[in-house]
Amino acid sequence: MIVVGAGSGTSVDGIDVAALDLRLDRDLVRARLLGAGTVPFDPDLRADVLAAFPPGRLGMQEVCRLDTRLGQAFAEAGATLGNELAGGTPDLVSSHGQTLFHDVVDGEVRGTLQLGQPAWIAERVGAPVVSDLRVADVAAGGQGAPLASTWDALWLGGRGHTCAALNLGGIANVTVVPADAPTTPTTPASPTPAVRAFDTGPANALVDAVVTRESGGRRSYDADGAGAAAGRVDDELLALLLADDYYAQAPPKTTGKERFHLGHVDAALSTLGREVAHLDLLATLTRLTVRTVADALVPFAPGEVVVSGGGARNATLLRGLTQALPDARVTTSQAHGIPVDAKEACLFALLGFLTWHGLPGTVAGVTGARHARLAGRITPGHGALSLPGPAPTAPTRLEVVG
Hints:
The protein contains twelve helices and 13 strands. The protein is α/β, with parallel strands linked by helices. The protein folds into two domains: about 1-150 and about 340-400, 2-Layer Sandwich (Nucleotidyltransferase, domain 5), CATH 3.30.420.40; about 160-335, Nucleotidyltransferase, domain 5. Strands 1, 2, 3, 4, 5, 6, 12 and 13 form an eight-stranded mixed β-sheet that branches. A five-stranded mixed β-sheet has the order 9-8-7-10-11, sandwiched between helices. Strand 10, helix 11 (about 315-325) and strand 11 form a beta-alpha-beta unit. Helix 8 crosses helix 9. The radius of gyration is 20 Å and the shape is globular. The model is unreliable at about 185-190 (pLDDT under 50).
């Protein structure tokens, strides 16, 4: 089955698209990557998405228009790049859309909002669309994130050592897969889920916000971590940032730009009561990511950390993680057959594939959900829906094949 996965992260760099040929062979999912790429956002749309993140406020007219514009952008990406990668109209499109708000109150997720109306995708591409991938998990009592645990548990299990998958987008999330972890869903009654997944805190979100402001919008990220490498860590500011109580919370937990935005940095600087040079600020914020990721992973003693996302291209960040995790081999998803920018689009394709076959897209207990649930809702394409019967067994392994 040819599935196109598409999504945009909190960095809003563009729409990541991946086409996979997915086959279910009893308990094994075989995934062949047909191709992947990124379609940049129209600059005006990107600016409006960034302005909509907290603490920005939108009226319902603006929300409706943004939902439509994002849906049209995803539709164009699917109809052009997606169809090209798939070699024609795919069997299915699985769209995550763009997260605008993740409503966390006292550690509990009350709701989550992803925009990008799927009807535009179905109309433009012609294929059915699975979308709204997080809400079922939230309704079942989960955090709705990180969804990556579904892919990671199947992909990294059985390697003879504990593996941690680390995605460095706007927010950093990890999945820890013990060497002997079962990859079938665990029950919430288990004292410790075999697989753990949670957001560790900011990855690129704070650095991106500072770079964007300092450059007047001419740059949106610290290319290769060069700015951070040229600065010096301000230990006093770092201590203030590390005092945020999110880091002390036990998983499962999730966060986003509603918490870690430019105002978060400015509040720490105000408490500090003095100026910090721009490059030193970048160095400090980059070290914040290194520290919070390492502090989250050290208790699990991973033998390997597999990095993906935009942060995987930041040499300063990867060098810091390698130094902070001396007992782990820090590598990237590319070493396991998945380009660093394509990992999440591949995940979304898998989630759509599982939903199409009547299989859960989450692992109960990992996100805090009471039960593993099918992910998303289905929007028909141009033809009648014809779903296969539910698969008899849930997969326990995923193999990336050439």
